[in-house]
Write a sequence for this structure.
């Protein structure tokens, strides 16, 4: 069976989490079909008032970053061009005339203020506003500048949704919806039906918020003599509290912001694909190829999926380690270019790769490199309060701290082989010689070297910093006490 899916975003601003998931599922379904699958990117830009310059390029860039390549659409072209709705007016007008000729559409000259008066009248009577109850008796010939409305013939509808199951609706919500606006551009309600028919779309995948409009869409399919595509309603992505649909005010950033913050494309794809879908197993980490193999419509959940940024960060940490362990240190290092602290700019790749090799397993995002590695490239500011307030050191006197530092300096000065194993052996011997607990001695040395809230294993930190830098810092702290 040939499967044709589409992602049809509006270029009205940044591309957010919900938008992207509406691209992932059509992509997976099309790719699963192999040579029989086609993924179309279509830009729904007929709302000219809300059009944002550069938004289309941002959409394309985001999809490419996630690896969601399309077979037809902007950049790549295809047999159904153009792929911008604003360039398809002639097509929509041709289909609109079919409805006019069959008596299923009419030009509506009613002024907007009169329509608003009808709304207020219904509100005062506490009844639903349906424009078909105020349908004008005399309608002119349709021409640009006059809205074109669908002439509803309300009746009950039943349909099958691949996620929600068998559904039905009565005639009470079907109405004379606008097909072509006053400016000559089509509404979404009309344009997407025409475009899907013209482009041979077999599966229409979109958010569950469109369910209430489905009876009007079914009426249009019938009026135009079109076969219904398979309808797939995607569950809402909910705010972290789980009480409403995720919105801009709920803290979710644009996909571009997440990328700039150091989230990997693999992690974002993995997380969003599993936000509302699972294959019935306990597996959580999937490559793109695994998602393509495992994806199925019958495993999309019908209830909303709660957005959890903490979970996204967990996925990202998993993928950071997976890339390092499976593809090698150089593969992960290649992703880090924009994320090192400014102090690292004068250091070569070999040194930064050493730093990455001992820090990567503690990273949640690549941007953590900026705050977690600065002391590898620049001497930290000595903060004695950080020593004296440390929970393991606050009971020690200044003279005791000074003496421990001097013993550490002497031990490390005498060490001939500055390698991780030798350093660990020296540190273990120092524990016996000083009679201190690891939490006390190692915390002191770690803070004196980094003055950071976190650092990797002490022997690895010493090895990467090198003999001269390590001893210089320990001496500087000892002199400051």
């Amino acid at each position: 069976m040939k499967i044709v899916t589409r992602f049809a975003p509006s270029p009205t601003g940044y591309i957010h989490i919900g938008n992207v998931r509406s691209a992932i599922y059509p992509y997976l379904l099309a790719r699963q079909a192999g040579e029989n699958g086609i993924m179309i990117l279509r830009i729904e830009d007929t709302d000219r008032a809300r059009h944002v310059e550069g938004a289309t390029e941002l959409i394309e860039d985001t999809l490419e970053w996630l690896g969601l390549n399309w077979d037809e659409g902007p950049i790549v072209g295809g047999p159904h061009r153009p792929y911008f709705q604003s360039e398809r007016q002639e097509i929509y007008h041709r289909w609109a005339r079919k409805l006019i000729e069959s008596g299923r559409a009419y030009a509506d000259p009613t002024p907007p203020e009169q329509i608003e008066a009808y709304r207020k009248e219904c509100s005062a009577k506490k009844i639903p506003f349906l424009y078909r109850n105020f349908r004008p008796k005399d309608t002119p010939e349709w021409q640009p500048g006059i809205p074109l409305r669908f002439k509803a013939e309300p009746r009950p509808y039943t349909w099958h949704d691949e996620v929600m199951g068998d559904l039905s609706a009565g005639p009470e919500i079907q109405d004379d919806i606008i097909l072509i606006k006053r400016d000559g551009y089509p509404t979404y309600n009309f344009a997407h039906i025409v475009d899907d028919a013209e482009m041979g779309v077999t599966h229409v995948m979109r958010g569950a918020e469109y369910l209430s409009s489905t009876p009007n869409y079914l009426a249009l399919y019938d009026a135009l003599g079109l076969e219904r595509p398979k309808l797939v309603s995607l569950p809402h992505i909910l705010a972290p509290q789980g009480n409403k649909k995720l919105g801009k005010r709920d803290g979710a950033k644009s996909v571009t912001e997440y990328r700039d913050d150091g989230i990997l494309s693999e992690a974002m794809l993995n997380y969003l694909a599993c936000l509302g879908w699972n294959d019935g197993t306990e597996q959580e980490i999937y490559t793109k190829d695994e998602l393509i193999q495992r994806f199925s419509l019958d495993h999309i959940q019908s209830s909303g999926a709660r957005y959890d940024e903490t979970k996204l960060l967990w996925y990202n940490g998993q993928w950071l380690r997976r890339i390092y362990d499976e593809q090698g240190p150089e593969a992960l290092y290649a992703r880090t270019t924009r994320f090192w602290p400014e102090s690292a700019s004068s250091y070569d790749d070999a040194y930064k790769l050493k730093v990455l090799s001992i820090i990567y397993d503690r990273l949640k995002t690549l941007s953590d490199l900026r705050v977690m590695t600065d002391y590898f490239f620049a001497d930290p500011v000595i903060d004695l309060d950080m020593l004296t307030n440390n929970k393991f050191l606050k009971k020690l006197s200044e003279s005791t701290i000074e003496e421990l530092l001097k013993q550490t300096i002497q031990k490390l000065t005498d060490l001939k082989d500055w390698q991780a194993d030798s350093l660990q052996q020296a540190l273990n011997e120092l524990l016996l010689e000083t009679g201190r607990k690891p939490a006390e001695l190692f915390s002191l040395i770690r803070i004196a070297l980094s003055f950071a809230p976190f650092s990797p294993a002490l022997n690895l930190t010493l090895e990467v910093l090198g003999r001269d830098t390590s001893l210089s810092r320990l001496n500087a702290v000892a002199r400051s006490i």
